[in-house]
């Protein structure tokens, strides 16, 4: 269980109290194993969701490794946590204003004020990953997992440029070997239109008033090529729950369609064909269970997705 692991709180910035991350060590010096790194959701603005929300998922990963290691088609696997995982990390990042929790900028200390605007959120994710890579030296050996807005941020790592101040020498972090997004927001104007404009307030808070700016930041509408932007990437998993009342399955379908039909990722039998090892692999997982936040609050299906990704990477299993 997570409580049995060595935990360290790191600060990757000093501008805001949310520029922090938690680390739970399993075998951190083993460079052949993979880290599992989580980006929480919360519509870029919910301060009630912080990095410790990953603990239930860590507990499930630690306790169900043999049973949950499969290829997405019900097949069992072997190995265990110690064979595959070097450690876990979960990131916090600066947040945008929340209408239910207003702040007075004139009286709120600068480091407590929630006034982030894109690209602040992804810049923080990038800085957090760079700190982890400098500290633990794992390079690309990690699975980046993101829920809701965190799913957006996981893919924005590939679609946005690092600021000049990123890293120690103006360089961003090494991208992950695998990305897992579940309940993710990928087409901001699309889902807002399907919801009759109900999601506009938090998109405006995070990306500004112009819908063109939302499209410019949306992973589905990335103007580049994901295969080219992610040269070391090997596997992407896009998950959704039919019970999700906040983010419809079409959002995940559209992201999977983009990766498959535009960027050349392979799935299904092609994904399992060894002749396609030169291509990036994709799994569209549609059988998660629970409403939007129930999936991460439980952690069971998050663990399942993590073990699927680790098996695709051949992580000692």
TrEMBL record:
GO molecular function ontology, one term from the record: arylformamidase activity
Catalytic residues as annotated in Swiss-Prot or TrEMBL: 148, 244, 292
Organism domain of life: Eukaryota
UniProt GO BP: 'de novo' NAD+ biosynthetic process from L-tryptophan; L-tryptophan catabolic process to kynurenine
UniProt keyword annotation of Hydrolase present: yes
Pathway: Amino-acid degradation; L-tryptophan degradation via kynurenine pathway; L-kynurenine from L-tryptophan: step 2/2
InterPro entries: AB_hydrolase_fold (IPR029058), GDXG_lipolytic_enzyme (IPR050300), KFase_ver/fungi-typ (IPR027519)
Keyword annotations from UniProtKB, A to Z: Hydrolase, Tryptophan catabolism
Enzyme Commission number(s): 3.5.1.9
Motif (HGGXW): 40-44
Primary role: Catalyzes the hydrolysis of N-formyl-L-kynurenine to L-kynurenine, the second step in the kynurenine pathway of tryptophan degradation. Kynurenine may be further oxidized to nicotinic acid, NAD(H) and NADP(H). Required for elimination of toxic metabolites.
Comment on protein domains: The main chain amide nitrogen atoms of the second glycine and its adjacent residue in the HGGXW motif define the oxyanion hole, and stabilize the oxyanion that forms during the nucleophilic attack by the catalytic serine during substrate cleavage.
Quaternary structure and interacting proteins, as annotated: Homodimer.
Family according to the record: Belongs to the kynurenine formamidase family.
Protein name as it appears in the record: Kynurenine formamidase
